[in-house]
Write a structure and sequence with these properties.
single chain; 160 residues; alpha+beta; Pnp Oxidase, Chain A; eight-stranded antiparallel sheet; 5 helices; 8 strands; elongated; General stress protein 26; Stress-Dev_Protein; Split_barrel_FMN-bd
Length: 160
């Protein structure tokens, strides 16, 4: 396995159990909290939102460069993910992704006319993977005893 393959596996394995982050367009510094569904085999993240949101309205004119930032100390993943965000009318994908959580936002369920699916095609990511919060505590304590700098994990960039 190459370093790139190993890094990709670490990224997707840790992202799998994490379901939210901050999403926005690169042309606008404003990021908003959004839940994502990861699809490692296609290199995509999917989001369910409302057509009336600023983000969905901004995409009405076409696909845009976007960023999604995820952070979870317990999972040991911190990443800034860049790619292209687009509106999607894929009803089969919406059916696949629909959940009790998503239904809480739309009174008519997935048939609600305000439901909008977003597809995020990943281009690259800057990633930090750590051993998680317990490992971090151990590394700090160890550095105090040994005088060595703590080993907080790996930092790498991925291209998709």
């Amino acid at each position: 396995m190459t370093d790139h393959d190993d890094h990709l596996k670490k990224f997707w394995d840790r992202l799998e159990g994490l379901n939210s982050g901050m999403l926005g367009l690169t042309e606008d510094a404003r990021l908003v909290p959004m839940s994502h569904q990861a699809e490692a085999e296609t290199g995509k993240l999917w989001f369910i939102t409302a057509k009336g949101t600023d983000l969905a309205r901004a995409l009405a004119g076409g696909d845009k460069d976007a960023v999604h930032v995820v952070s979870d100390e317990g999972k040991g993943l911190f990443a800034r993910i860049h790619g292209t965000l687009a509106l999607s009318d894929d009803r089969a994908k919406l059916d696949e992704l629909w959940s009790v959580v998503a239904s809480s936002w739309f009174k008519d369920g997935k048939q609600d006319e305000d439901v909008q699916l977003l597809r995020f095609d990943l281009a690259e990511a800057e990633v930090w993977v750590t051993g998680g919060s317990l490992s971090f505590i151990y590394q700090i304590a160890k550095s105090k005893v040994t005088g060595d700098e703590p080993d907080i994990g790996e930092h790498f960039t991925l291209s998709f």
